[in-house]
Design a protein that fits this description.
This protein starts with a helix and ends with a helix. The radius of gyration is 21 Å and the shape is globular. Helix content is about 75%, strand content about 0%. By secondary structure, the protein is mainly alpha-helical.
């Protein structure tokens, strides 16, 4: 049994790391065949790891809700509004990077608590509730903090969390925070029960209202950390007409990949590997001039469809490989 466990662990690790390796090989081959030589070089890895901090941190915030079976459409708007307010008031008080970080987290937790309160009191379906709140938060970016967006990309004294090594520090903290909360606390255990059956979980005594509030506090902290990186790396425009969902969906794919791969190892490892895979694909598409728009969406859609088809058949594939292994062992014995 011990030997089998070791074999299973090695197999799971191999499957997990194969995805980004395969993506790298595919994109490297495609870019090379198109005369692009800089894919795979040091400048690419530097850009990818700089973007990985935002992708993983935001992914942890989204996954905190998805693990409970809640798809929160307001996550992108929460992150942008918190970042906008954080930058605005940091500049008003002539603060530094640590004030920016603290304010982004505080505003994000406050906004997330508003979302949680509206959700548990209105008893609306989570999708309807969070779409409505996303529209409200987007409107607030037009009227709060001057209503002009924020831009600190040229402020090298304030935007340090958008550069190495500080963006990696935030990412590592978010990873540790996420895994500890879900693996080593009663909240994480209750999250698993609620995800697989809310009615049954409530019937055995789990307080869903308390769990929702707690989950939003934790996701609010993670969105605040992500907001700090986001405003440090981007010119932040005001939002409208659910434009924040574009930001949301740019990170959600890596979360779904990560939650599947997390079944093989630790979930945070899966989330990081999923984010790395998407970053490798995006960089390659960008190098070929498909960084946004039609072809980017087509390639992205094909990749995700292929991934979902394969993962939906994961049980059947595993059974087939297991039977194949047993037949091989029986053949060796005879």
């Amino acid at each position: 049994m011990k030997c089998m466990n070791s074999k299973t662990m090695v197999r799971n690790i191999a499957i997990t790391i194969c995805l980004p390796i395969l993506m790298f090989v595919v994109m490297y081959t495609i870019t090379k065949s198109n005369g692009i030589d800089y894919y795979g070089q040091s400048a690419m890895w530097k850009a990818i790891f700089r973007n990985l901090g935002m992708a993983v941190t935001m992914g942890c915030g989204l996954a905190m809700q998805l693990r409970h079976g809640r798809f929160d459409f307001s996550g992108g708007a929460t992150m942008v509004l918190a970042g906008t307010l954080g930058v605005y008031y940091t500049q008003q008080f002539n603060g530094g990077p640590m004030m920016l970080l603290a304010l982004c987290v505080v505003f994000s937790v406050i906004i997330s608590m508003i979302t949680a309160t509206v959700y548990v009191t209105s008893k609306l379906p989570i999708i309807i509730c969070t779409i409505m709140l996303a529209l409200v938060y987007e409107a607030l970016t037009l009227v709060l903090a001057g209503g002009n967006g924020v831009n600190i990309m040229a402020n090298v004294g304030l935007n340090i969390f958008g550069r190495e090594p500080y963006t990696i520090y935030i990412m590592v903290f978010a990873m540790i925070f996420y895994q500890i909360i879900l693996s080593l606390t009663p909240f994480g255990y209750r999250a698993k029960l609620l995800r697989h059956g809310q009615h049954v979980s409530v019937n055995i005594g789990i307080n869903e209202r308390k769990n929702v509030i707690t989950a939003y506090v934790f996701s609010g902290i993670l969105f605040g950390l992500a907001a700090t990186i986001f405003v440090s790396q981007n010119k932040v425009e005001t939002l409208s007409n659910l434009s924040s969902t574009g930001i949301l969906f740019s990170y959600i794919a890596s979360v779904y990949i990560g939650m599947f791969l997390g079944k093989l190892t630790l979930e945070i490892i899966g989330l990081t590997i999923g984010a790395l895979t998407i970053q490798l694909m995006n960089y390659g598409l960008g190098a070929m001039g498909y960084d946004s728009g039609g072809w980017n969406n087509i390639f992205f859609g094909i990749f995700m469809m292929t991934f979902w088809i394969i993962t939906s058949k994961a049980g059947q594939i595993e059974a087939f490989l297991s039977n194949l292994s047993k037949k091989k062992e029986m053949g060796q014995k005879t």
